[in-house]
Amino acid sequence: MNSILRSLLVIGVFLFTPIAGITKENTTKSLDTPAPSSSKGKHAIAMHGLPRYPAGFSHFDYVNPKAPKGGKIVRSEFGSYDSFNPFIIKGSAATGIGYIYDTLTVGSHDEAFTQYGLIAKSVEIPEDRTSVTFHINPDARFHDGHPITADDVKFTFNKLITDGNPFYGAYYGDVTDLEILNPLTIKFNFKNGQNRELPLILGQINVLPAHYWKDKDFTKITLTPPLGSGPYKIKTFKTGHSVTYERVNDYWAKNHPARKGQFNIDEIRFDYYRDPNVALEAFKSHNFDYVEETSAKRWATQYKGSAFDTKKLIKATIPHQNTAGMQGFAFNLRKPIFNDVRVRQALNLAFDFEWINKNLFYNAYTRTESYFDNSELASSGLPTGKELTILKKFEKQLPPTLFTDKIESPTSKGNGSNRKNLRKAIQLLKEAGWQVKNKQLVNANGEQFTFEFLIYLKDFERVILPYVKSLQKLGIKTEIRLVDRAQYIERIRAFDFDMVIQTFGQSSSPGNEQREFWGSAYAESRGSRNIIGINDPIIDELIEILIAANTREDLIAACRALDRVLLWGHYVVPQWHINTYRVAYRDFFGRPEITPTHNLGFDSWWVKPTADLTGELVQ
After folding, report:
1. Are strands 72-78 and 267-273 parallel, antiparallel or unpaired?
2. How large is the average pLDDT for residues 454-483?
3. Residue 303: what pLDDT?
4. Are the CB atoms for 261 and 242 separated by under 8 Å?
5. Mean pLDDT computed over 146-170
């Protein structure tokens, strides 16, 4: 998945079994004398088809290669942080910490999944795809001038597997061993050639300096600014409140084709806020310079005033072609009350999206109907073609209606009366052994159906409350538990919740990460990203079919088959999505003429050289 490392969820991930042949002690002794990087291999690798940009390309199409450098900006973030180590399960890492690291390869934002050499000057993959070899750019340097070598790559990989976030153990689980062929060449060997995306996701590794970490404990939270090789480094910070990154003037890759026209701003500071409404007022008062809005209500009602009228503050909606993924109320199947699929389906019927969209969201959203919505990967109608062929293998284990009925989210008139769906919900609950007595939904033992919504942002309450009222009509008792972000993270890691609002982000080229989302092996592992607790051998097999897809056509069919089975499992109450970015920013920003299809491309923006960065905004 081309974005999975950038979007690694702070809630933590699953435990793992260390990869065979890779341990702390299994470290090849490096050669002492540097050798030139091999001229073998390709400048880029695509998941399917050919790279968009040929060898020798000068820059990506969506950047301005002549963008001016300079300026200082402030951005906002929510919550707090207590660590500069984003690679372990402990703590909450500072926003923007990825700026200080470079990767072996880097993805473009206008392709489904293609990786271009960065630290790796070239990449070799044999026809059977049983290995990948990275030839390191001899110009690659850490910020202290130390050259990046194969030793650093091996050190990084071993460290992530043995001491890092358990996520890495599964993400790279098909690697059997690795070899340092010379100081600037490293080879990863695989179990087999079935995991087609493995060479690409290995290229996404943030390479760490072995010489820096050799006398430090990688497993601990740290607030000592670490050494990196990326376009920025940490300048100053106030723990939990702000962190400032400064552009590295002698950055080794500043003229690299995959970096040209990007990282133009001299200084970026992230200020942390507890409340989105307070943050918006701070933005209007010139306390920070750029915001991406997630609330339809705030976007419709509060981005107004003289500063917007005079264009000192710019309000813009920018379309994209990103896969929407799935956002919804996620059930915890480890709780017995949610085990019956009819119960989960009934709770979906009780959710009145049309009323909420009309009354709370100004009709800004589209109901999510797929785990891969807003993309060609989404299932629809009835299964046909290759998707049907895949599903036929499991026909006896799947519900017959999967092959005969379209699955669609329930709809209402949006007038606050959802009686038709509630009647269906009551019938399903009765079939599942529940009945209404004295206006309470109870089981055979007379125990009321009760559960808790766990949230960490007060904004979520306004979304949940209408749902709560609808559930009350079914006799269901609910509570909303608002906790701070740190407690929320810990409770998610321990599966100590009934229902949460969860987003399962998807890229345009899904792969290994599907194991973490839905795989049975991670259903009971603390910190797993399978927070729902799905444990279904059919889903496990569909995931492996998806990972092994040889062509884009095969991948689409496999995604649709997996999507359809997940939908028929009713594992979430789907919510909504939007296919635009809602952003507001100060008038001193410059933007390239082209916005990439799969990313906002903020890192290619710049501060205009004539900008007044000190003037106060008049509201």
Report:
1. parallel
2. 95
3. 96
4. no
5. 93
Confidence at 612, pLDDT banded by 50, 70, 90: low
Question: E strands within 466-522?
Answer: 477-482, 499-504
- Span 473-483, pLDDT tens digits: 999 999 999 99
**Distance from C-alpha of 551 to C-alpha of 525, rounded to nearest angstrom:** 32
354 contacts: CB under 8 Å, gap ≥ 6: 411, 412, 413, 414
Give the pLDDT mean for 59-84.
96
**What are the pLDDT digits (tens) for 354-380?**
999 999 999 999 999 999 999 999 999
Question: For the chain, where do the domains classified as CATH 3.10.105.10 start and end?
Answer: 326-571
**CATH classification (class only), 232-321+579-607:** alpha beta
Question: In this prediction, what percent of the chain has a pLDDT beyond 90?
Answer: 81
List the end-to-end C-alpha distance of the chain, in Å, as a whole number. 43
pLDDT higher than 80, residue 20: no
By three-state DSSP, how is residue 267 classified?
A: strand
163 and 218 in contact (C-beta within 8 Å)? yes
CA 471 – CA 225 distance, rounded (Å) = 49
Q: Is the pTM of this model over 0.70?
A: yes
Task: Give the chain's length.
Answer: 619
Helix and strand element counts for the chain (H, E): 17, 25
Return the HEC string of 529-552.
Answer: CCCCCCCCHHHHHHHHHHHCCCCH
List of residues 6+ apart from 111 with CB closer than 8 A? 46, 51, 52, 598
pLDDT band at 509 (very low <50, low <70, confident <90, very high): confident
Tell me which residue of 196, 91, 169, 123 sits closest to 509, measured CA to CA: 196
Query: What is the gyration radius of the CA atoms in the chain, in angstroms?
Result: 25
pLDDT for position 23: 31
Q: Where in the chain is the domain with CATH 3.40.190.10?
A: 232-321+579-607
Please, what CATH class does the domain formed by 326-571 belong to?
Answer: alpha beta
Q: Token digits for 598?
A: 């799969």
Which one, of 407, 399, 397, 389, lies nearest residue 561 by Cα? 389
Q: How far is CA 581 from the centre of its chain?
A: 16
User: How far is Cα 248 from Cα 100, in angstroms, rounded to an integer?
Assistant: 9
Q: What is the pLDDT of residue 378?
A: 96
Q: How many CA atoms lie within 13 A of 364 on its CB side?
A: 19
Q: Are 481 and 496 in contact (CB under 8 A)?
A: no
The structure tokens 């989302």 sit at 517
CA distances in angstroms from 163 to 58, 313, 517, listed in the order given: 38, 45, 22
